[in-house]
From TrEMBL:
Belongs to the UbiH/COQ6 family. Pathway: Cofactor biosynthesis; ubiquinone biosynthesis. Pfam families: FAD_binding_3. This is Ubi-OHase: ubiquinone biosynthesis hydroxylase, UbiH/UbiF/VisC/COQ6 family. Its cofactor is FAD. Transmembrane segments: none annotated. It comes from Solilutibacter silvestris. Residues 7-310 form the FAD-binding domain.
C-alpha cells in the first residue's frame, strides 16, 4: 500500500459511538469515511424509542464539543437530579442529589434514536462521507495501513480502521480478536409507564433477588423501566395481561411512585457480558460494544463507549499539537491499554454487583446490606462513586 489517496480513517458502525468518533475525527481535520449497514430510522417525537440511556456529564461535554448536544436538548431529554438505590432484602439505601454536588443535574435520560438521528445530521453537515448501505467483508492490514473490502466489491484504504459495529462486530471477527463472554441467563424488560405520583426528576433502582429494577424519569411525567429478570420470568411478564403486569411492577418497585400503568409496548433483550481481549489488532481499533458489552444495571454501556471515543480524540489532538503522526503504533497501543484497563474494571465491577444483589443467599444479603449502608453514610465515598460514574 502507498499513502497516495489513502484515507486517514474508516469508521465501521453508524451508531452513537461510531458516528461520534467519525464526527470528532472530521472536526480534527482528518479524512474519514463512515460505513454503515443500514440507515437509521428518522427519530420522531411521536414514536418514543424504548432504548434509553442515563447519559453522563462527561459525554454531554463530548457531544457539546461536536456541536450536537444543544440540538438534542431542544428535543426530548429529561435531566435527573436525584437517585435512590436500595435493596429489597435489607433496609440500607444509597441516595445521590445534584444539590450535594453543586450541579444542576446528575445526568440526563436520552433516547437512543434521538442521539443517532442528531449525530447523523451533524456528520453529514460536517462532510463526513457515508457509505450506506454497506458491509465489510474483507480486511487486510500491514504495518502502514488497512484495506477493507465492502460487499459491493469496492475497497477503502486507510491509516486506521475503527470497529464500532456493535456486539456482533463483523470487523472484530475479521481481526481474529477473541472475546471473553458470559451469558447471565437474564433478560432486560423495557417499557414506558405512567405513575400515580410524579417522579420529581428522580432515578430509582431497587435490587431484587432476580435482578435490579430501574425506573428512569422521562418527559411528560412518564418513566422508563429497565427490569432485569431471569429469562423465564421475563418472558412470562412480557406476555402477562396489562392489569397483572401493572400490579407486579408496582410491587417490585416497592411503591416508590405509587400505582404504575403501562404506557407503551413491552420488549426484552438478552443480557450478556462480552469483553474483547484487546482493543487493538494491527491498525484496527475496537470501540463501544465491539469491544465491551456490560450489564445494564449501572446504565454505563454507551458512556463507556463514548469514553473510548473521547480518549481517542484527545490522542489525535495531542498528536496534532506536537506535530506527530496520530497513528503512530506507540500512540495506538497506549490508547488501547488505557481503555481496556478501564473497561475491564468497569465490566467486572458491574458483573460482581449483579451477582451479589441478584440472589437471596444469606451471606450475600448481609454483605450488600452493609455495603449500601456504609456508602450511604460516607459523603466522600458517595461523592467518589458518583464522580466515577459521571466520568469527572
Amino acid at each position: 500500500m502507498n499513502r497516495r489517496g489513502r484515507l486517514d480513517a474508516v469508521v465501521v458502525g453508524g451508531g452513537v459511538v461510531g458516528t461520534a468518533c467519525a464526527l470528532g475525527m472530521a472536526d480534527a481535520g482528518l479524512d474519514v469515511v463512515l460505513v454503515e449497514a443500514a440507515e437509521p430510522a428518522q427519530w420522531s417525537p411521536g414514536h418514543p424509542d424504548l432504548r434509553v440511556y442515563a447519559f453522563a456529564p462527561d459525554n454531554a461535554m463530548l457531544l457539546d464539543a461536536l456541536g450536537v448536544w444543544k440540538d438534542v436538548l431542544r428535543q426530548r431529554v429529561q435531566p435527573y437530579r436525584r437517585m435512590r438505590v436500595w435493596d429489597a432484602a435489607v433496609g440500607g439505601a444509597l441516595e445521590f442529589s445534584a444539590d450535594g454536588f453543586a450541579r444542576p443535574e446528575l445526568g440526563w435520560i436520552v433516547e437512543h434514536g434521538l442521539l443517532v438521528d442528531r449525530l447523523w445530521q451533524r456528520a453529514q453537515q460536517r462532510g463526513v462521507v457515508l457509505r450506506c448501505p454497506a458491509r465489510v467483508v474483507t480486511l487486510d492490514q500491514d504495518e502502514d495501513g488497512v484495506r477493507i473490502g465492502l460487499d459491493d466489491g469496492s475497497t477503502l484504504d486507510a491509516r486506521v480502521v475503527i470497529a464500532a459495529d456493535g456486539a456482533q462486530s463483523a470487523l472484530r471477527e475479521l481481526t481474529g480478536v477473541a472475546s471473553d463472554e458470559h451469558d447471565y441467563d437474564q433478560l432486560g424488560l423495557v417499557a414506558y409507564v405512567r405513575s400515580e405520583r410524579p417522579h420529581d426528576d428522580t432515578a430509582f433502582q431497587r435490587f431484587l433477588p432476580g435482578g435490579p429494577l430501574a425506573l428512569l424519569p422521562c418527559p411528560q411525567g412518564r418513566s422508563s423501566i429497565v427490569w432485569t429478570l431471569p429469562a423465564d420470568e421475563a418472558r412470562r411478564l412480557l406476555d402477562a395481561d396489562v392489569v397483572a403486569f401493572n400490579h407486579e411492577l408496582a410491587r417490585a418497585s416497592d411503591g416508590c411512585l405509587g400505582a404504575l400503568e403501562l404506557d407503551s409496548v413491552r420488549a426484552t433483550f438478552p443480557l450478556r457480558r462480552k469483553l474483547a481481549r484487546t482493543q487493538l489488532a494491527g491498525r484496527t481499533l475496537l470501540m463501544g460494544d465491539a469491544a465491551h458489552v456490560v450489564h445494564p444495571l449501572a446504565g454505563q454501556g454507551v458512556n463507556l463507549g463514548l469514553r473510548d471515543v473521547s480518549a481517542w480524540l484527545r490522542s489525535v489532538r495531542d498528536a496534532a499539537a506536537k506535530g506527530r503522526d496520530f497513528d503512530a503504533l506507540s500512540r495506538l497501543q497506549r490508547w488501547a491499554r488505557e481503555r481496556r484497563s478501564d473497561n475491564t474494571v468497569s465490566t467486572l465491577a458491574f458483573e460482581a454487583i449483579n451477582r451479589i444483589y441478584s440472589n437471596d443467599q444469606p451471606a450475600a444479603t448481609l454483605l450488600r446490606g452493609h455495603a449500601l449502608d456504609i456508602a450511604g453514610r460516607l459523603p466522600m465515598l458517595r461523592h467518589a462513586l458518583w464522580r466515577h460514574a459521571a466520568g469527572l
